[in-house]
Amino acid sequence: MSAIDKFVNAVRDVFANTPDARAQARQISGHMKALLASPGLMQEIEQKGGGKPGRIDLHIDDKYGHPGPGFCLMTSLTPKGKSTGGARAHDHGASYVVYGVYKGAIEQTKYTWTYSSAGDWTAPELKPGDRFVQKQGEIAYFLPGEIHKTAAVGDDPPVVLRLEAQLLDRVARHTYDLESHQALSHR
Ligand SMILES: [Fe+2]
């Protein structure tokens, strides 16, 4: 059985037996750590992607997921020398995403709505919270409602695996403007 198939089976088992999203994400993190350490993984990724750059869906599942059926394991390959682009701050709606770094490194920054302490509770601003560099082999996840921004670190484009607990094109979510503090519907 391929490393990806083994991971997918373990994740399906987590969704089938664990109702708590936090517990799910913790268990999936452990399985993803094992996946990242699999010797033949890059070959499997390249096979699934047909040697082309861009988004590669490694598995799409219609039966399991959180909060409803439909999860996905994906990655994205960026050609060397090409910018990975700066992703906007975003959430994952009612779902969550587990990020595993296979090659390179990414900086992760979380944001929270901060309300004024001067008695005005109607003008919140987004403030950076936890910020960390996620290196090769390391896992981080973002639970329902969490806002984060990801940026590549270093010259070589990183390879990051993402387990989306719900196919995100089915999820209502937002992107955030960190200067104007706007929350905009993301499609
Ligand atoms: Fe994200």
Describe the protein's architecture and organization.
This protein is α+β, with helices and mostly antiparallel strands and 187 residues long. The chain has a single domain (3-186), classed as Jelly Rolls. 21% of the residues lie in helices and 39% in strands. The protein has 3 helices and 11 strands. Strands 1-2-9-4-7 form a 5-stranded antiparallel β-sheet, with helices on one face. Strands 3-10-11 form a 3-stranded antiparallel β-sheet, with no helix packed on it. Helix 1 (3-17) packs antiparallel against helix 2. The longest helix has 16 residues, at 21-36. The mean pLDDT is 94. It binds fe (ii) ion. Fe (ii) ion binds next to loops.
Structure summary:
This protein has 187 residues and is an alpha+beta fold. 21% of the residues lie in helices and 39% in strands. A five-stranded antiparallel beta sheet has the order 1-2-9-4-7, with helices on one face. A three-stranded antiparallel beta sheet has the order 3-10-11, with no helix packed on it. The protein has a three-stranded antiparallel beta sheet with strand order 6-5-8, with no helix packed on it.
